[in-house]
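thought: fold this chain, then report.
action: predict
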Amino acid sequence: MLEGREKKSVVLKIKVEKTELQVDRLRITGEITEGADNIELGYHTFNLEEDDEIEVWKDFSRSDWETLEKAASSKAYNVLFCIVEDGKADFYRVRESGIEDISTLKENIPGKMYSDQKAPDFIGDVTSAIDRVKDEYDAVVIAGPGFFKKKLYNALDDQKNIFLKDTSVTGKTGLHESIKRGALKDIVESSRIDEETGLMEEFFEELEKDGKIAYGPRVEELVEKGAVKKLILTPEKFRERQDMVREVEHQGGEVKKIHTDHEPGMRLDNLGGIAAFLRYKPR
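observation:
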């Protein structure tokens, strides 16, 4: 019987051989290289969840550090949430330091006889409030139940950095629900996708002009010649070709990862997962 036995925390060091990202955790498997005296050496798997603390020993490339710095800076955000339903809009400022109630706009939606006359007034009031302050925020999230949030979104003159999110309720409960459903994550992801899409659009423009670019197996040869100004890889190729990554960085070039969860990234994958902007066009 094991009942009553006290659980003790121990520290293990493993040499990572396999990682697997699951929905709610990261599984890391490897050979145990250090552990408590009563721990047999062998293999172990860590199941890491959000807020778990680990110590990582790794020879990081410059692009690795850039990725880590971006991930750290993405935690700093300043987002305006508008939780809206017919006749009421609650505004909140959401930052990494917490949630701040800003204001509430209310208007009674009249009966069917005058609904067409009054509803646009309320929509105009809310859109005006958003337009006045949106430049002070990284993004705006319009959330709530029903279709009213879509009407509000369509009434905005400029929809850049405006996000929609469905919730089942309004008020602060609706705010927490929208965050739980990934509203903040969507903003970070959108920013990444915009940046990656812009880079790939620039690449394909150069490709059409037969400009200073290359892709596929030829890139490796151009790296050896010192011709690569900016190396572009899918995450899979980034992991596989660390030799190429380090050589480009050693030559003073840049390295950028393009994910394949959007159309430009899939186009890069179809080109072999590797492309480059060049310092000069080889003969």
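thought: worth noting. The chain has a mean pLDDT of 84.
final: tokens above.
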